[in-house]
Structures are given as structure tokens and as C-alpha cells.
Amino acid sequence: MASYEKALNEFDTFNPVRNLWRNVLIVAISDAIKIKANIIKFKEFYEKRRFHEIDYVTLPNSDFAKICEYAELDHNLVRKKIIITLNNMKENYDKDNMPSMPWKRLYQSKGINRESSGNHTAVSEL
């Protein structure tokens, strides 16, 4: 029983306020990532625009620092990792990193394109 109590004391306890602010950070970061993906895809359309969602998580500001403080995270480290992630998105966009498909496409398989005898109207008979 003593080892169980020791394990509880060594790890964080459930803190709903901290979890709330971490979820706020998650939403802010995911918004910035979605917008960055659209900026990368449609460069000509978005090149002259500025987005507050990206500025909020990448530029130093007191609101972001306060939310990170409530979430018990270091705001400089969080901001640094977000900037690295957004830069990696931009660098990896033009690379062809889609996996090759070793199988035939579904419409090319013999099982789907086989000829019907014409006597059956049920789909299961095809």
C-alpha cells in the first residue's frame, strides 16, 4: 500500500483548472496550424494578410504568457516548439512525401468489375 501512495505523490494530481487552460492552448495552437496550412496551400491568396491566431502563439505577448502560466507550462518553450512546427509545415509542403500505393486501385480490381450474368437484380449477387 505504501508504494501506491508514493506513486500518487510523485505524479501530478488531477487539476481541472490547469486542464482547462491546457485545452485553451490546444485550441489556439490547432487554429494556428489550420490557418498556416491554408496559407501554405493558397499562397497567392493569403500572402498579404496577417492572422491574429498565428501572431497570438508565435509573437511574445502577455496574454499567451498568462495562459501558459495557468496551464503550468513555460511560455517560451511552448512558443519555440510552435514556431518550429509551423516552419516544418512550410518546409515539408512541397516535398513528395506521400506513400506509394503497392496495390491496385479499387475500381481496377477484378472482383468489382466482373460481368453480371444479367439474371440477378440483387446487389449481393453481383
Can you give a write-up of this model?
This protein is mainly α and about 130 residues long. It contains 6 helices and no strands. The chain is extended and about 60 Å long. The mean pLDDT is about 80.
Strand element count: 0
Mean model confidence by pLDDT: 79
Distance between the termini: 63 Å
Q: List the secondary-structure elements in sequence, H or E.
A: HHHHHH
Low-pLDDT sequence parts: none
Beta strand % = under 5%
- Number of helical stretches of at least 4 residues: 6
Q: Helix proportion of residues, in percent?
A: 55-70%
Structural class by sheet pairing and helices = mainly alpha
Overall 3D form? extended
